[in-house]
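Entry: CoA-transferase family III
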Amino acid sequence: MGPYSVADGASKALQALQASCREELPEAFLEHAKSVVFTSTSSNGKGVHFPVPLKEQDAAAAIKALEACAAAAIADIRYRKAHRQIEVDLDKTSCFLMSAYLTTIDGMDKGNPEAKKKIPDTDLNQAQSVLYRRLSANLYETKTAGEYYHIHGSLEAGETLKMIGLPPQEPRLTDYHDCINTIEKAVKKFTVPELERMNLEKGQAGIPAMTWDKFRATPHGKALYSLPPLTLSTAESTTPCAAFDTPEVGDYNSPPRALSGIKVIEMCRVIAGPTIGRSLAAHGASVLKVTSPNLPDVPFFQVDVNTGKHTTALDLRNSRADREAFDALLAEADVVIDGYRPGALSRLGYSPETLSKLAERRGRGFVYVAEDCFGGTDVRGAEWAGRPGWQQIADCVTGVAWAQGEFMGLKEPVVPPFPMSDYGTGALGCVAAMAGLYQRATKGGSWICRTSLCQYDIFLMSLGQLPADEQKRLRQVHDSAFFDLRHSDSVDEVGRRALKSMERVAPHLFAEDDGLMQTARSSGFRATLRFPREPIRVTGLRVSHVRPARPNGYDKPTWDDDWTEDERMVDDGDDA
């Protein structure tokens, strides 16, 4: 048997994705799947790059392929129907899955302390910058030997630490291992059921680490397993078809974009939700990221997932003027991305039902895209649908972390390197949004699109693990230091060791002149940014970014600002 081919695996994953989403997507999307080719920038692109047992590259490449099919189908009704060759670059897909770790600001990556000086500090509660508080979001063993619980202080930290009997601040604790030992000692005072009760009482985002089989046996696991990775439903069906605006005129050097003129409001933080917006921006949508000046975010992620967007800050909870500004934005918007805990925007007065009523008044439908951790909103049996969560939480509950730990020779779970589930979920959300826009253009009405981190992980797990021979090869070629990791090592440490190993095993992903990265000068950050190129190419369309990232809250809350291409963007080479 020859070496494992990610290209072959991605083709099979695309078939599985089509089969599971067939009832959710326009037939036109699926027709273009026949034109998909999985390519690579390098001779090593079709190999497995990550020290993981699951088919992360295959899954992400399949989803990005479906995204390209969506762009092709929209182009058919917006411009002209044509045979469109679709290419998915597997090297660029790998870069996409670790985008936050490859992106740099003035040559500094997220692990460089000096990078913080270039980025507005959105870590309002020091939940990221203080190591002790940072490790309030981590996986620990419980009172019962062999059972593990991932506590998660989210972006606040203090409440989770107090919940397990620790002070919210502990200035004397600065050593990595001392912090872990102190917190794990506190967690070990409780059983999983006790931690679950406390976690739910305090509204925290913790979860027990489960195996795949155990998760599937839970009511929530059963409910989600019956769902496709993304869902579409009608919110209202009275508004007429909303055809795309007059086609953008392209020329030989600049083909048109599938989503030019589409206005997107992004209500998200961290990675998964903002990845939806970043992907839509690559197809030409005008994406306005709206954040609250009073809510924290992970500072460095601004450099990564704000690519292609405008950003503004509005306090919808306390400022009447800001609500009026948001309502004015909403009046013209086509898409609303909701990346908050289910119900959060509804409590502010912006539920899907409210959007539907606004759509009926203005005579043009909305596409509402919801991304969350657990999925299952309005699905019978999905008992955890309303729980808060993050990438690590989804990876722990669905069995992904247990699979990673067993691959590493351990009898304990380990959260996999890099926020791959975040990026994969974001790609699913982009496909869902494009499906909603296609349906709005051809059938009318408003559409509710949903996906979640758990739904992505279920799709990933359903593909099965890499063959035993390939897993053995990965254990042999990757650094032994990576396999010395334990359950309680932080995602930062796991990512750092994985990155160091991959720089040796797959050096082409990190080369300066590899064609995988794009460089641009950001006026918002007053710095030069380097970030991964988009993995897909579609004949007759442009899929790439026209503006670099800018900080949260940089722009005025208006659609009237200049949305033209930033001339300082270095030639992106992504036109097809």
